[in-house]
């Protein structure tokens, strides 16, 4: 089993993509994260949990009981925290390094690269510069269990 | 919107559950992670990426190019690394602390707790000791975007 056989089509964002649109794609497709490209090359991962973090002011993260006194509705919170922002604004240094694999890498190579980077998804490239899809950790487990 | 309205039914594991069965549940339901209970109470999270990590020997994680020389098939690798192990064996100190929320917590409280713990899912409890479901980060974004 090679990476190209495991890769799935996935929405892909750029650093300039709209942050609200990124939240919408994660929500609609129920994805753990999205691949972010820069000048056509996979560059970073935007985990859904990172977008959730942006919805919450820092002082409420420090003391979640303060969420009760927050005046804003969640809709306002989305507009205030994500509105007008780009995906690049949401990506911090804390994001895991994106795993990038080649179409002909074996399943064990893909697992090794995801494991080493502690990244929950891998971007699959053909000829080093054409992104053909994405492999999530759960997709990799599915392929591993189906392997003969 | 309260936690109980966002919670979804999810397979739940115990520390004693079979590790191969855990991999199968993550794969079948394409989940980013599973809630692990201990004596009926949510105790930890088993991320799919953590199970992937277990499939790969340490020396291959350090140098993924060695995956090419690995003799085992992926099926053997699953049997060798997960066979006979329990979920408790897969959970290391590195796992994020599981977010646990109450059924009547608001969506902003849930987001705040997930954000603070950097946990990609939250277990939802009613009356402090009955687990009624799970909220993933992408489910929370879905609810946030639907909020009026």
Q: What does this 3D model show about the protein?
A:
Two copies of one chain form a homodimer. With 148 residues, chain A is α/β, with parallel strands linked by helices. The first copy, chain A, contains eight helices and six strands; from the N terminus they run αβαββααααβαββα. A three-stranded mixed sheet of chain A has the order 1-2-3. Chain A has a three-stranded mixed sheet with strand order 4-5-6. In chain A, helix 7 links the parallel strand 4 (99-102) and strand 5 (121-126). The longest helix of chain A has 11 residues, at 19-29. Chain A is elongated. The first copy, chain A, starts with a helix and ends with a helix. The model of chain A has no long low-confidence stretch (mean pLDDT 89).
Structure, briefly:
The structure is a homodimer of 148-residue chains. Chain A is of the alpha/beta class.
Task: Count interface residues per chain for the largest interface.
Answer: A-B, 57 and 57 residues
Oligomer: homodimer
**Largest sheet of chain A, described in full?**
3 strands, mixed
Morphology call of chain A: elongated
Number of helices of chain A: 8
Which structural class fits the helix and strand makeup of chain A?
A: alpha/beta
Q: C-alpha Rg of chain A, in Å? A: 17 Å
- Side by side, the strands of the main sheet of chain A go 1-2-3
Q: What is the succession of H and E elements of chain A?
A: HEHEEHHHHEHEEH
Nearest-integer average pLDDT of chain A? 89
User: How many beta strands in the DSSP annotation of chain A?
Assistant: 6
Residue stretches of chain A low in confidence (pLDDT < 50, at least 5 long) are: none
Which range does the strand content of chain A fall in?
15-25%
What percent of residues of chain A adopt helix (DSSP H or I)? 40-55%
